[in-house]
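User: Can you help me understand a structure? I only have the sequence.
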Amino acid sequence: MIPKHLVSLIEKQPGNTHRTNKDLAISALETLGVSRDSEFGRFYINYLPDNFQSSVSDEYICDVSEPTEQILMGTEFIHNVWELPESYISFTSLQGEGGYLLDKRSGGVWDFDLAQREDFVSGLIPPKWNSFFEFIRWYLSPAE
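Assistant: Let's start by predicting it. Here is the structure, written out as tokens:
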């Protein structure tokens, strides 16, 4: 279940935030190897984040299935080009040689910077957020 305080932040976003074709999202999650019961899975099965606006980040969140499989394409890029471990998923635009990455095993989220790739791959950089819901709460919260 998605926490009520997070649902409230999502409902304040502009446009239609609710996903109507959940089967597309479920299929895309399966392709990525992400459990539909994970926080990431539950979020993407229920919501379309492509119009989300953040006052704390310039990165935009990609969608898992609509209109294209942006997350799959970004994830293949970080694995094939940046040679990051297979457990990581890129769910933002990757502009500026970085972006937000989810570790599908731990659920943690990193604010990845390509300049720190060696330290990241060596496990020297801890997640910035311990869970995907924690990240979304930060991303959608008003700047302080």
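Now, to help you interpret it: The longest strand covers residues 98-103. The beta strands are 88-90, 98-103, 109-113. Let me know which part you'd like to focus on.
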